[in-house]
Design brief:
The protein has a single domain, classed as Maf protein (Alpha-Beta Complex). A 7-stranded mixed beta sheet has the order 2-1-3-4-5-6-7. 30% of the residues lie in helices and 20% in strands.
């Protein structure tokens, strides 16, 4: 069993779809009782992904996969970057974030952008594997499409001729930042499973307690 360190249904669906050919039971945080939230205060996607994966693995005692990903916009100096999920505020919806982005991009001629993703797979003792992916695109003038989540409706992928929200899940998985990172992991997943087995703590044997049962 591996837990996906997220409650995001869209992200969970993407990851499960990309790893569906492997004999592994993928859960997410909704399958467990309440656990403390991880403060994503890392300066990079790499730091946040590792922090989420290692924390979740330690708390639940099973391997955990976490990704930190976001949108990097040239005209905005790399923003929203690690703040992509909360660009319009801590409790911002996807629509709030998209609206803020479009407002910031109003009148901008340079609309180049990229989705970046770092995936960390950690075991309870803290050791982790890291995979990265990047997808280039441009920010559309207005949202289009009903698939996906996050900034997908305004991220236009030139090679596909569509926004990410207009691409079906299977096709998106072939070209997306998360798809590239996961496909990199999937390409060596047999080795990953061996690595997990080698780095998981050995089960503790519970012996019977002995006592002095002699008669005085």
């Amino acid at each position: 069993m591996i837990v996906l360190a997220t409650r995001n249904k869209g992200k969970t669906e993407e990851i499960r779809d990309l790893l569906k050919q492997f004999p592994v039971d993928l859960k997410n945080l909704d399958d467990f009782g309440p656990i403390p939230n991880v403060v994503e205060d890392g300066a990079t996607f790499d730091e946040n992904a590792y922090k989420k994966a290692s924390f979740t693995a330690r708390v639940l005692g099973i391997p955990a996969i976490a990704d930190d990903s976001g949108l990097v916009v040239e005209a905005l100096g790399g923003a929203p970057g690690v703040y992509s999920a909360r660009y319009a505020g801590e409790d911002a919806s996807d629509e709030d974030n998209v609206n803020k982005l479009l407002a910031e991009m109003k009148g901008q001629a340079d609309r180049r952008a990229a989705f970046e993703c770092v995936i960390s797979l950690a075991v309870p003792k803290g050791t982790a594997l890291t995979y990265e992916g990047r997808c280039e695109g441009v920010i559309a003038e207005a949202p289009s499409g009903n698939n996906g989540f996050g900034y997908d409706p305004v991220f236009f992928h030139p090679e596909s001729g569509k926004t990410f929200a207009e691409i079906n899940l299977a096709d998106k998985g072939k070209v997306s930042h998360r798809g590239k990172a996961l496909n990199e992991m999937a390409a060596e997943f047999d080795k990953v499973l061996v690595w997990i087995d080698q780095n998981m703590p050995a089960p503790v044997k519970q012996g019977c307690m002995s006592g002095d049962h002699g008669q005085e």
